[in-house]
Structure formats: C-alpha cells, structure tokens
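Exam revision sheet. Question 4 asks you to relate a sequence to its structure. Input first:
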Amino acid sequence: MDIKISTLEISASAVKLVVGYELEGSPYVLYANKVALSQAISAGEIVAPDQVINAIKVLAADAREALGETISEVVLALPTIDFEVFRGTQTTNTLSNKIDRIDIKNIMALFRKNRVDPNKVIVAILPQVFKTDSDQVYRLLPLGEVSNTLTVEAFLHVLPIWIYNSYIETVQKAGLKVRKVYPDKYALTELLNSPATATNTYFLVDFGAKQTSITFVSNHNLYFSRIINEGSDDLTYLLAQKYGLELKEADRLKKDFGLDHRNVSVNFPLATGIGERGEEIKVFLSDIYSTCQTFLNSHLQKVLSEIKIVGKSQNMPNLNKYPLLFVGGGSTIYNYEEIIGSDRSFPDKYIVKLDTIGARDLTYAVNLGLIKAYSKYAQDIGDEKASIGTLTRS
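Answer key, structure tokens:
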C-alpha cells in the first residue's frame, strides 16, 4: 500500500508527527519529529491546548519544509481511556448484485448508527469477517463477488465523547483536518501484527512518560486496557529530588546510564547536585543504578499486580502463559532487560524492537501503528474522501 499518510499522536510527553506509507507490511517513514510538552496533558485530558496547538503548528511547518509539501490532514491517535470493545454484525443489500465498495460503506454507516453509551462514541470499526448470501466467508472484502447481500462482523472500539471532541478540536484549531482516528493502543497492536512478532496473544505493557498501560491482545485483537498512573517521568523526578539535580540532567542520567552497573577503574562522579542545605552531592554510577533498580522493580511489580487483578475480573486462569511485550520510552532505559529478566512469574517477557525503515525509535511506535492501521482500512474499505469533526450528544 503506497498511500502517503500523515499521523499525529498527542501524548503526555510530546506531540509526534510521522509521515510515511506501508511497504510490504511494514511502515516506511519519510518524516518523523516531535515537540516536547510540559504539563499540557493530565490523565489524558488536554489542559493546556494552546501549548499543544503551537506544537502541532511547529511540526506541520517543519514537515512542509522537509518534504516540500503541505500537511493538511492527519490520522490521529486517541488515548485509550475508559475504552470498550463491542462485537457487532450488519447486513446490507448490494446495489448491483455484486459486492462493491459502496456496499461496505453502507455497512459502516449502519454500524455507526448503533446506540452505545450516550457519553461515548464509536471511534473505529474493524471488520473481521465478510459473508455473501451463499454463506461464503472471507477475511478480505470480496470485491466483485456475486451476491445479493453483504454481511460484516466487526469489532467496534468505543471511547468517551469528551476525548474524541477535545482532541479533534485541538488539531483543527492548529489548522489541520482529521481524516480518521484510532485508539493509541490499537495502533500499537497493529504495529506488532507482523510475522516478526512471535505471538498473536499477549499483554502489551506501554511504559510511557506519565502513565503505564496494560492491554490484553488476543489473535491481534484489542480486548481491554488498564492504566497505572506511574511512568518513566516519575523516575526522573525521583533522581532529581534525591540528588538535587535539574530535571533535564536527571533525565539524561536515567536514559544514558539507567541500570549500568559495570565495574569502572576510576569511580568519578557523573554529575553534581545541590542538597537542601546548599551542599554539593556527587552522583556516581552506583547511585544511578541503585535508584533506578529500586524504582523499576517496584514499577514492574505494580504492572504484574494489575495484570493479576485483570485476570481475576475477566476470569482468565493461567495468566503466566501469556507473554508480556514492553514498549514505550520507559522500556528503552539502559539495560531495562535486567529488570524484566529478574522476575520469574511470567517466563516470557520481551522488549519490542522496531524493524522499520526510516524510524527505529520506540517513541514513534503509535504513529507507525497508525500508518499500518489506516493502510489496512484503506485496503478493506477504501481511502477516506472527507475529514471528520466533533460530535454532540443526541
């Protein structure tokens, strides 16, 4: 699929813009950049819209200069908060006794008329099975197949209207149109939906800056997602407070050294902080290691406890048979493998490594998944011709 797609993620740490297309099942990146945010997002809510709007404008201008063309529309990621999944079936009469793209568009319109919670909206419709009037079953839309009807079974992703409206409105105020939206965790599952992923059923742990999400994926389908309000920024704040460092310096030490516990012949300080009484605090490699190890071990135990709670609520025995796949900036902390390897309750744990042309940074994982998700949609349903807007309750 060679449709050029502009994707936008507004996360707690940054606004990220990636332009690219799908090539043989993998995202190919033409442009990727981000603008950091400072306290602009709180628990998924955009609390400083002007900061976000300005960041989007900066990225759009930078992309225009880098690519020589204007970015006018984006596929947008929405935070997976208060997320629900429904399964639905719809049937329509074909207009010409042969299945055409207009028939699947009619089906999608029927799905969108479904009544869900009045405070929520269907943000994504993901066809799973296509059926003809002879009960022939297809995984891809059978264009041109003779049939008087088309039946589609699909997963419906539902999010609160306030999330949908506030994110779209913010993007529109930055001068861009929104072509389509997807939950951010669904985008991640699409990125991992490839032969390179060893399993199609797993827990996805997104170790972000402000939050950590835990998502259960079965047969590459997103079922539910939970959030822990702790992320890698909390480790940065801990280092800064404990050793009297500026946040920027604490973040650098976390990323560059993290769980580095190599024996060094000369034990020199990596940084110098200022204590509460104005005294100097010399920060050594062993200090960074011990602080990061304690925090990250505690964080992992919170993740595992949340998974166990989910398992009980969803009646899922033998949880440890499912692999844990780690993504997000927190999983890139130096030698993070040591932390997940130290736990034996879940034997299969992996940090996702990207095999993407043009951008191998996990920071852009959601954007890369959006490229795959929209390419798949455009192939099944057809490329969107109109942008979408905000909704009112009915």
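Marking note for examiners. The chain has a mean pLDDT of 89.
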